[in-house]
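Problem: given the chain below (290 residues), write out its structure.
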Amino acid sequence: MANEKLTIETKYRMRSGWEIPVLGFGVYQTPSSITSSVTQQAFHARYRHIDSARVYRNEGPCADAIRESGLPRSQIFFTSKIPSGQLGYEPTRKSIDAAFSTTGLDYIDLMLIHAPYGGKEARLGAWRALVEAQKAGRIRSIGVSNYGVHHLDELEAYIKGREREGGPGAGGAIDVGQWELHPWLAREDIVEWARKRDVVIEAYSPLVRGERWGEPSLKRLAEKHGKTEAQVLLRWSLQKGFVPLPKSVTEERIKANAEVYGFELDGEDMKALETRDYAPCTWDPTVSRD
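Solution.
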């Protein structure tokens, strides 16, 4: 995936058979009062992939922006997530219903389990509810967020067990995994696990919340290519084969973050951004052992 010629129209095919745009627009912590207008700005900048969640409390305004955009619904990819407090078969079913009530959408392109908290029974029950919603055509693709390798192994074992009982597809398939990913948190073990299974990898906080601006290697590459440090980080993510999810409420930055296709980082550039750091800038549920 990472070696093909990338454009803003590039999409990756998921295991579900549906396609996902390689650049997403995140709305985490975007106030609901401005989410619709900010999302419209993203559409004008040619983003076609919106990443929301139930706990963001802005699914409705995202859906409003989709309807008001004038774009065909089929051209927009919309993601939401099941909160960790609503895991379990019945709670997740209700959360899915609530997402449709909130958005008024006919279908949701991708639904993820937001975090692996709550215990094994809750995680696997939530997954069963997602698989049922996918089979019913309400959700097109499903996946997980913030899962550690041990959580992924647990889910894979469950899926294989369901297939032994009910045949191929009975347990569903992990289409997408979403994690905090950037040069200071490369998560090589998780990335390797996902790639071996053709799971599309999404990267949230790809700009490290601005905490790394001015780092010598990053600054040097920005100067070398005549780009912003944010653009260099997004290009790194794209060339890693990830689907980065930058967020901003500033029109200028929304546009700039989409202008990452006119240059390429060479091998030395990519190596210069390699670190041995394990430095999350947000939470880190991957290490949870409940």
